[in-house]
Structure formats: C-alpha cells, structure tokens
Design a protein that fits this description.
This protein is of the alpha+beta class and 328 residues long. 28% of the residues lie in helices and 33% in strands. 29% of the residues are buried.
Length: 328
C-alpha cells in the first residue's frame, strides 16, 4: 500500500473567558456535551462568519481506534472512561482562491475542479482533552483557522445550542504554558525585542512561512535564517513596543516552525524580562500517514489526523496533567 508521511505540529491550548483571560468557572465535560448534541442532530454542523471568513465546524465521531489507543497507552487513566473521548471537531475555513493542479509532463496548470455546491477549504482538527478545558489542534496549512478562531466558533456554537445562556460570555484560547509565564506576559506593557530563528530549504518543513519569502531561491538544502525586531533607543515610540506586544499575544502559541523565539518584555516600571517562548510552549511534532493509493490521494482527513493528535497527547500526558490546574 503506497504511503506518504507529512509532518505537522500538534499545539495544546486552554479555553478561557475572553473578558478577562481568566479560567472558566468549571471543567466542561466536552465529550458529554458533544455526545448529547450529536445524538440529537447528525451531521452536527454549525457555520459562523469570523472576521469576514466563513467557518463551518463539524463534530465527528472518531471510532474505536482512538479509544483503543488511550486504553493501551494510558490504561491506568483511561481504563474506564477512555471511550468517552471519541469526538473531534473539524473546522473548515473557506479559501479565498481555488488551488491549482499541474501536469507533471507538460507543466501546464489549471484550477482544481470542484463539484457543484462544493468549496475549497483549509481544515483545523480539534480534539478536547478530558481535563483543564484544554484542547489539541492540528492545522492542515498556514491558512487554516487558528486556535482563537476555533474558540470564537465554539462560543457561537454553544450559544446556538443553548449550552451558554449568557450572551456576554465569550471564549478565547491561550497556549498551555506555565502560569507564571502567562502572568508575566499579561503584565507586560510592551516588547523591546523579538528574536526568531527557523530553517530554510528542501530539508525543512514545507509548512514553514519563511519558505514562501524565498520561493524564488529554492535551491537551499538546509540553512538557518534569524530575524530580529528591536526598538531603537531615542527613535522608536512607545507604540512600537505595544505593536510588538500585540504580535506576541497573537503568536505566542503558534510559532510551530521556529527553532528560536525569544522576546524581551518591559513592564510599567521599565523592568525588562526575557521570555523563551519555545521553552515554555507545549507542542509536539507528529507524522501523519496518508494512503496515496486511494482516489483522494494525499488528502488530510480525520482518519489520518486524529490518531496523530491523540498520540501527541499520550506523549505529553504527564506534562499536561501537571498544568491542568489553571488557577481557579
């Protein structure tokens, strides 16, 4: 059977109250919530318009493979309730273009054909953990909906389903990292410097955004590129530090293809603090195995992705368990 392996990053995030970034009042039993709603409506779909882009979320069942994996790898934990963790969410965001396909002999390109009533989409695959209001997410591509898009979709989905009655309540996602780091980041008034390093070339990840910048110079095999953003003493304004801070808050848990990500924050007293984002963030690289013998060759789908997500959870279980206390 022809097989192909793709490398993607599984990120772990925590759902918090968007009004103050504080933990939710209780741990939700997401498996029970999805199971109850799934039993009433199938397929379980909900569409939301988020920042001008349509996202269609679908709650799906994952079959026995997920249950068996949890039972086998974490018998002491999931021996009795592992079977409850068999729901996932696929969040599909409309593409703003139709991808091309290319003839390998002639080099001629043409748009990928779409069936009538179908749209080209980018998928995000989400699996909720059984504790800490945490979830794991794997992005199909760089244009897939990020964790906070999922949190916004989840808010609207739960309102429409009657799970959330208070219309003032909304959810946000923050990366699962040490609480002290989150607190230090929250207290920062600005960021003086950002240092990033990533690899470029044929041996690096095709999902790396830097590869797009150097697309016309694709003969590199494997080199490092380092980018540094610093405010200029006496010339930069405070707004520049605040702009850096906004970038930091948006990308803290999403620097999946970088080998270095360090920021220097400054508080209201002018005290400078250095945060190593990669050291603190919890994520894991995973291989996704595709069966290229099928008609939908190379397509990433739930059968290939969710086992990889759960494998990442198993490998990170002890660390995640240690971080489940969200400060309530």
């Amino acid at each position: 059977m022809p097989l192909k392996r793709l490398n993607r990053t599984v990120q772990f995030w925590r759902i918090v109250d968007a009004r103050d970034n504080q933990p939710l009042e209780k741990d939700y039993d997401w498996a029970a919530i999805f199971g109850d709603l799934y039993g009433k409506t199938s397929p379980l779909l909900f569409e939301a318009d988020l920042e001008g882009r349509k996202f269609l979320g679908q709650v799906v069942t994952l079959g026995d493979k997920i249950t068996e994996l949890l039972h086998h790898e974490l018998t002491d934990v999931f021996g009795s309730k592992g079977s409850c963790q068999h729901f996932g969410v696929i969040l599909a965001g409309d593409k703003d273009y139709v991808p091309n396909q290319q003839n390998k002999q002639s080099g001629v390109q043409q748009p990928v054909g779409l069936n009538e009533g179908w749209d080209a989409v980018d998928n995000s695959f989400v699996w909720h953990l059984a504790f800490g209001n945490m979830f794991a997410i794997l992005l199909e591509s760089q244009s897939s909906g990020r964790a906070n898009r999922y949190a916004a979709w989840l808010t609207r989905f739960l309102r429409q389903s009657g799970i959330i009655s208070d219309q003032q309540v909304s959810y946000e996602a923050i990366p699962v990292i040490d609480g002290d780091v989150v607190d230090r980041a929250r207290k920062a008034k600005g960021i003086k410097a950002v240092s990033l390093r990533t690899s470029l070339g044929r041996a690096s990840s095709a999902n790396n955004p830097v590869n797009r910048i150097f697309a016309s110079h694709s003969n590199y095999h494997d080199v490092d590129i380092e980018i540094k953003i610093t405010t200029r003493p006496g010339r930069s304004r405070q707004e520049d530090e605040q702009e850096n801070l906004e970038w930091f808050r948006e990308n803290l848990g999403d620097l999946t293809e970088f080998s270095k990500a360090v920021v220097k924050t400054v508080d209201s007293k002018g005290t400078i603090d250095e945060l190593n984002l990669l050291k603190e963030r919890l994520s894991r690289k995973q291989n996704i195995t595709l069966d290229t013998s099928k008609s939908a060759a190379d397509a990433i789908n739930k059968d290939s992705v969710f086992p990889a997500i759960v494998e990442a959870f198993v490998k990170n279980y002890r660390d995640l368990q240690g971080l489940k206390d969200d400060g309530r």
